[in-house]
Design a protein that fits this description.
Length: 1045
């Protein structure tokens, strides 16, 4: 007598799970029947390669290959192993008429090569990401072939020692646990896939939903078909499943929500593996996707990051040709528009533009179009200037999902309009499943509809699916799931789609969408504003240095044009500058510049910077020689060069460390004898009983205690104290810095509760350099292993105190900050960002306020009240925290994963304390910060004084407007690009004067192309005469001008 089935849902669900498990009871359950007619590969030849060699090198000498067997382990980490497999399909008559698969699991990543072409990636491990490679779809019993497999001794996520993000274990080995030829039983495969959906359905749907019980009942009915198994078990099971999916779970009651499904393979350009391994990840991932396109013509696949496509073109040209073919077919979808998926906080505004400029150039040249979707799914926050920058580079739309990672508040929209600080609007979408690597489960399909936060207005969303971060991409299972899930009652419609198609549909309801104004702040990973200080310092300094190189390039080019001579400063200079930029852009990837990569990556990044510095210095010397002659020539003059768009009166240091007080015109130079300021009021330093020290010039009177802390700073113009009474500025504090998990990434809110003021000062002394500079020096112990050495100085006529700092840093999970309690009444702090500034609260009234416990700023941050304020300038720091009237700047961190040597060693950096009358705009804080980051240049010319004429290449008459780039046009050799932005937040008129007469001037977009949408909306530039043009600039607007000479 048959007993009724129990109603315990857990037991029923787990029974189905175990019935298809590849781990539990796998020798007797349905999983054991997935493959049939299994045969071992008779001969396995192996070659331990001397690095990441090419396929041609790997097959050039087959004598070095030796016989190995399944069960052999290969290593160490990051090594490469090649295998040669000679396969004869005539050895088994049972294979005839079947699709045959090579099954490989080396518990690592691998790439199949056949006929000299990369065919498919293989990813081993317990999760069976991708073990199968189809040898033939219909075996005739006569095929013979040779397969090469390139095995990488690392997993999909590198080689972490104790966890995924742990520092790599250099001695890992990877075991070849499976190598066989087999036939996939398609009926059993379909049953297994359907049962996975039933399990997911039961786990995802609300318990009261009738489909939960029905799914469990059907799953158990299927399991019973094989107890005991009969010849028609599979047929009967399929009948049960079809009845369910086409009946109880099917029907015509379709959900009105539509899913735009897009295959995706997020490949971190570097992270837990080095750049060199990413090149191979691209080949493994994209060859796999091309293979799926051949089998599933409806399958579409999105691919971003121009540099990765360049790597494939260079290293796998046959694969790249296939990518171009399938791009034309509309299946392979290049998107994003940027060189890499860069960090969204730290790069400068000009760096952001170059990301698009060189990225879009690559897409246009290789695929025939500019990308219209900005694609940045995994970056740790997004600057409020990105909408304007993206739109100026032919972008219409934006997609990300990272804000769903926020730790405290839930972002209120999935589809919305993102408005930047200048007012530019960008249609934006966050995929509701909150992932860019869905496995096309029932749960993700359900979430895409259920979690739509814009119901009633938006009835569609994007689903991005495919293994990601470490590559891999979509799989056969995912595509089969999409096909099956498309027939389930109550689920959304599923359509293989494209980013552009989705956004064009979303545009129909754009007027009804909410607008989000300002930055997209991620409430997590705020430690990335500070981690890996050397990388951030190199980035900042090279951004400024390449600005100088391009300025000199323009200077020299216009000089040659005027004289009618050929450029004498080297061939291919434009391309060489571009390569320098591309090096910087590469290192701006969102796990490199933020400091969240392994040591191998960080070492690579530092070497890339070193190489870039060498090349940039060569370029500078060539251009300087063209302009000013060789420094060794007799009779030369000392020249002071100012590359910025402001006149500057400040100190400059010559090669013998002598100081000179000079006044230099904008975008130009003067001989030292011409520009020295003869009259100035001396700066002084005085000491009182060794307990206090006073620095004073015409603007400031600053008092320091014997610990180097600023106890008073009087702004002499209005006798205003800048230091909060009873407090001390320039206080160094260390904090216990232990996050919940993401070590290199996170500074947690509770970190702020652990601050300890450092007080072990020693060796305080005063100094002066004549009447031009005076100061104090001291040493501060952090611990027995670490110390700070600081030189505090005040220059004649300077409006700020300079703090030159050197830190020997050898701590474990500590955070170093410097604090400035300011005598300012405000609840807002202002921070320099890309091409503008942003204000954030200093209070914690709401959860949205205190979630911003650490924020990103660039060259300066400011606390101001009406009529007075104080700014903190810096030359390479980005992390700030402000509470009340105290502003702190984060200096160094010491996390231990994924790089256990993060920031260990010696660091040097500078910051400045600048009290001011009036607003930070009227006090020209932004101008001062630019000067602080880009010092005047002293050089010895090779020309006599009468051969030199002081000049300004370009001048502007408005300090609110900043020229952020001056460069030669990408495509027109007689055109110069001036890119400027309004920095104060107001409408401005600016007069631009050129030393050289120009024929015409026109506004272009950031890709340096005439854009009718720009000229039709704003005819902002007018040529007045051969040397002058007037420009109208809106608040925070970025304008690119092309001057024809």
């Amino acid at each position: 007598m048959e007993r009724p089935r129990i109603k315990n849902k857990r037991i029923l669900r787990e029974r189905i799970e175990k019935f298809i498990s590849p781990i539990y009871f796998a020798d007797v359950n349905l999983h054991s029947k997935l493959y049939k007619h299994i045969s071992a590969v008779p001969s396995i030849l192996h070659f331990a390669a001397p690095g990441r060699i090419t396929h041609d090198d790997a097959i050039s000498n087959l004598d070095v290959y030796n016989e190995v067997s399944v069960g052999t382990s290969f290593g160490p980490s990051w090594s490469t192993h090649w295998f040669k497999l000679d396969i004869d399909l005539s050895s088994c008559t049972e294979w005839i008429g079947h699709q045959l698969r090579l099954r490989w699991n080396s518990n690592s990543e691998a790439l199949v090569w056949q006929d000299g072409v990369p065919k498919q990636g293989l990813t081993g491990g317990d999760n069976s990401e991708r073990w199968d490679y189809i040898l033939t779809n219909n075996c005739c019993g006569k095929e013979k072939m040779t397969i090469f497999i390139e095995m990488a001794a690392n997993g999909l996520f590198g080689a972490g020692a104790n966890s995924m993000i742990g520092p790599p274990d250099p001695n890992k080995s990877f075991t070849l646990s499976k190598l066989e030829i087999a036939v996939l039983d398609k009926d059993i495969y379909r049953i297994v896939q359907d049962l996975k959906i039933l399990i997911d359905m039961a786990q995802t749907l609300p318990e009261e939903n009738d489909l939960v019980d029905k799914a469990l009942q059907v799953g158990c009915d299927v399991a019973n078909c094989f107890q005991p198994e009969k010849s028609n078990s599979a047929e009967k099971a399929l009948s049960i499943l079809d009845f369910f999916f086409n009946g109880d779970a099917g029907g015509t009651d379709r959900h009105q929500y539509k899913i735009h499904a897009m295959g995706h393979c997020h490949i971190d350009t570097a992270w837990l593996w080095p750049y060199a391994e990413t090149k191979r990840k691209c080949a493994r991932s994209w060859s796999s996707s091309i293979g799926l396109m051949k089998r599933y013509p409806e399958f579409t696949f999105t691919c971003s990051q121009a540099v990765q496509l360049l790597w494939v073109e260079e290293n796998y040209p046959e694969l790249f040709k296939e990518i171009q073919v399938y791009t034309k077919k509309g299946q392979f979808l290049p998107t994003g528009g940027t060189w890499v998926e860069m960090d969204g906080n730290v790069p400068s505004g000009e760096s952001f533009i170059r990301q698009f400029m060189y990225g879009q150039k690559f897409f246009k040249e290789h695929f025939g179009f500019y990308c219209d979707v900005f694609w940045l799914p995994d970056t740790f926050g997004y600057s409020a200037q990105l909408p304007q920058i993206a739109k100026s580079c032919a972008i219409k739309y934006f997609l990300t999902q990272k804000i769903s990672w926020s730790l405290i508040n839930t972002f209120p929209h999935n589809s919305f309009v993102w408005q930047g600080i200048d007012g530019t609007k960008l249609l934006t979408h966050f995929p509701p499943a909150d992932t860019y690597e869905s496995n096309c489960s029932f749960k993700d399909i359900y979430k895409t509809s259920k979690q739509n936060k814009d119901k009633g207005v938006v009835s569609e969303g994007v689903l991005l699916y495919g293994f990601g971060d470490g590559g891999g991409g979509p799989s056969e299972d995912m595509l089969e799931n999409l096909s099956r899930l498309g027939s389930i009652n109550g689920l959304p419609k599923i359509e293989h789609s494209t980013p552009t198609k989705f956004f064009q549909s979303l545009e129909k309801v754009q007027k009804k969408l909410h607008t989000w104004v300002g930055e997209l702040y991620l409430e997590l990973h705020q430690g990335t504003f500070t981690t890996q200080a050397q990388i951030k310092k190199n980035n900042r300094q090279l951004e400024h240095f390449l600005y100088n190189v391009e300025f000199l390039h323009v200077f020299a080019s216009l000089q040659c044009l005027k004289e009618g001579t050929d450029s004498s400063f080297g061939a291919n200079l434009h391309e060489r500058i571009e390569e320098c930029w591309k090096n910087i852009l590469l290192n701006q990837f969102h796990d490199v510049l933020p400091g969240s990569s392994i040591k191998l990556v960080n070492d690579d990044a530092i070497q890339i910077y070193k190489d870039t510095w060498v090349e940039a210095m060569k370029l500078t010397k060539e251009l300087m020689k063209s302009l000013f002659g060789s420094s060794g020539d007799p009779g030369g003059e000392e020249i002071i060069l100012n590359t910025l768009s402001f006149q500057r009166t400040e100190l400059v240091e010559d090669e013998e460390k002598n100081l000179h007080f000079v006044c230099v015109p904008p975008h130009g130079y003067k001989t030292l004898t011409e520009c020295v300021v003869q009259k100035h009021i001396p700066v002084t330093v005085s000491e009182s009983d060794g307990s206090s020290f006073v620095l004073q010039n015409t603007h400031l009177k600053a008092t320091f205690n014997s610990c180097g802390q600023l106890t008073s700073c009087i702004l002499l113009r209005n006798n205003r104290e800048a230091v909060l009474p009873g407090q001390m500025c320039n206080q160094f504090l260390t904090y216990t810095d232990i996050p919940l998990y993401w070590d290199a990434w996170d500074i947690m809110p509770y970190t702020n509760e652990t601050g300890e003021v450092l007080s072990k000062f020693q060796n305080v002394e005063t100094f002066n350099h004549g009447s031009l500079r005076a100061g104090i020096k001291f040493t501060l112990k952090i611990s027995d292993k670490s110390e700070i050495r600081q030189t505090i100085s005040l220059d004649a006529e300077s409006k700020f105190l300079r703090f030159e700092t050197e830190v020997d840093w050898h701590e474990n999970r500590k955070l170093l900050r410097v604090a400035f309690p300011m005598n300012v009444h405000t609840n807002q702090a202002t921070y320099d960002i890309q091409c503008g500034h942003i204000q954030r609260t200093t209070s914690v009234n709401t959860s949205w306020d205190w979630a911003k416990h650490e924020v990103c700023g660039h060259k300066w941050a400011d606390l101001s009240e009406y009529g007075f304020g104080v700014s903190l300038l810096n030359d390479c720091k980005y992390g700030f925290t402000a509470y009340g009237s105290t502003l702190q700047m984060s200096l160094l961190r010491s996390p231990k994963a994924p790089d256990d040597e993060v920031d260990m060693g010696t660091h040097s950096f500078s910051y400045a304390f600048m009290p001011h009358v009036g607003s930070f705009q009227s006090a020209q804080v932004n101008f001062t910060a630019h000067c602080f980051n880009n010092p005047l240049i002293w050089l010895q010319s090779g020309k006599k004084v009468n051969d030199l004429s002081s000049l300004s290449l370009f001048t502007i008459d408005n300090h609110a407007v900043v020229i952020q780039a001056i460069k030669m046009h990408n495509n027109k050799e007689k055109n110069v690009i001036l890119r400027l932005h309004e920095s104060h937040g107001g409408n401005s008129d600016v007069l631009i004067t050129s030393y050289h007469a120009f024929q015409d001037v026109a506004r272009v977009n950031s890709l340096e192309e005439v854009d009718e949408t720009l000229t039709s909306v704003s005819n902002c530039v007018e040529k007045l005469n051969a040397n002058n043009a007037s420009v109208k600039v809106k608040p925070f607007e970025i304008i690119t001008l092309s001057f024809q000479f």
